[in-house]
Automatic annotation (TrEMBL):
Record-stated family: Belongs to the EamA transporter family.
Gene Ontology CC terms: plasma membrane
Entry keyword annotation includes Cell membrane: yes
InterPro entries recorded: AA-Vitamin_Transporters, EamA_dom, EmrE-like
Origin species: Brevibacillus fluminis
Bilayer-crossing regions: 6-30, 37-55, 61-80
Protein's cellular compartments: Cell membrane
Protein name: EamA family transporter
Gene3D superfamilies, per database record: 1.10.3730.20
Length: 97
């Protein structure tokens, strides 16, 4: 099979922009925001897939997709909140004889 020039351009574009730029941004986020936050970014892939499908492929967005979107974004929100530090408890030590 002979590869057409437009297919080669599409493959190159996917390789450079789809993978290369994402790779650079991923490691930039690890450096700036930490590994925990960066790992949560992967949960946003379904969200962007829904939006791109709607914008580029005229896919319909139904209530179940919106419900899933809310669940995903809620999980990312709750997982990304800073931890509350436990208040030190004053424990009275009694002397035992």
């Amino acid at each position: 099979a002979v590869l057409q020039p437009d297919v080669m351009l599409a493959l190159g574009g996917l390789g450079i922009f789809g993978s290369g730029v994402a790779y650079i941004i991923f490691y930039y986020l690890i450096q700036k925001a930490g590994a925990q936050f960066t790992s949560m970014v992967t949960y946003l892939v379904p969200v962007t897939a829904i939006l791109w499908g709607y914008a580029l492929l005229d896919e319909a967005i139904h209530w179940n997709l919106l419900f899933g979107l809310i669940c995903i974004l809620g999980g990312v929100f709750f997982a990304g909140r800073p931890e509350k530090k436990a208040k030190p408890q004053n424990v009275a030590l009694s002397e035992q004889s």
